[in-house]
Amino acid sequence: MSDSHISTRVIQTVGISTSLILSGVVTACSVIVVPRLLESPTPLLLRQWDNMYEQGKRRVGPLAIIPAFSYLYLAYNEHTAAFPALWKVNAYTTAGFLAAAIGPYTWTVMRPTNAKLKTKAAEASMLNSTDEAVEVATLGTETAHKLLDFWAMLNLGRAAVVASSGVLGVWTALN
Fold it and tell me: What's the pTM value of the predicted model, to 2 decimals?
């Protein structure tokens, strides 16, 4: 087995593994963490969501770069091969863009909900009394609990985008 073939397999493994692990982490936030947060009083819910959001922003976004570059490298590698398979170039390119799409998806689809939750979290943290924080956090038609539930549904969309990247990467590598 040539060094080139081994390095291709390593990059395939890194891209596929990272995108599928990332999809699992994002899914876990919606199906495991959020239901537990929804059991909490509003001020605690908002504080914990804000902490989860900040940790995710620091770790998940940058982690999405790994599969994106892995798939784009594989597309380039296939493109420059002696007998390139155009469908593989297109599939790896698509997988790379899907992996990177977690950023634009968050920015365009989730930003309004994120902003509302961040505002409610800031309002709740400024108040000393738990009762006052509950009152402020539930004013208007959108309660913190409803917003967080909606956020979890939107977050599943992010997971689906990254999972699609991983599944496409697996399919392309196996064919």
Answer: 0.85
